[in-house]
Amino acid sequence: MPDKPFLDVEGHVLTYREFDLASNRLARGLRRIGVQHGDRVSCLMDNAIDSVLGWFAVNKLGAVFVPVNTALHGDFLRHQLSDAGSAVIFVGSAYAERVLELTDELPALRTLVVSGEPPARNSRLQWVHFADLSDANADPVGTHPAPTDLAMLIYTSGTTGPSKGCMISHSYAVRAGRQMAINTCMTTNDVAWTRCPLLHAAAALGIVVNVPSVNGTAAIARKFSDSDLWPEIERTRATTVLLVSTMLTIIASP
Length: 254
Known about the structure:
Rossmann fold, six-stranded mixed β-sheet, 30% helix, single chain, 2 domains, alpha/beta
């Protein structure tokens, strides 16, 4: 069902076909700036179409996606970027300054991929606008990661010491998403909605990786807001909602 909606971020909708082609174009653009199999690519962005496209494009190259908590500053941010050995980072314009402040402490980091306004500060890092990475060629990149290859590093909260990167393989991610679909009885007619940040496995695997196993739809909000919680659920016609670590199944009247 290539023309069925796959991803809805506050009304910005991509079908399965559109998402696949867009992530192919982005993967080719990332390859052009030097991203290779096994490279760590971090992401310091709010939930957005760009952040999900970036994730899939990175994995299509056999590189490793490292989502980072947007609340992190200073040493907390430096620790995760340094520990991952990130060579490239996707960054929302509101968070670029935080990364630039740490440039001298992150020798492995070489490129900022900026979504939004370009950074004002000069830096040794090269930067490229997210939209400019999209290649004209939308063919698959020809890389085929093995099931046991590392797909993601998802960091713990750091409440009991420095954050630790949890190693998520491609196989684990797919199986976890599929199991969530089974546990919540998801079908192709369902829409799974969340406001949880995609830096958490619950939202990343339980929503974004969950729905393709049944050809469902993932609906994601940028940030939590209690004022428009129900309007968003009504707009998307969500049938399953992820709030923190709780999954709710909504039985809607016709």
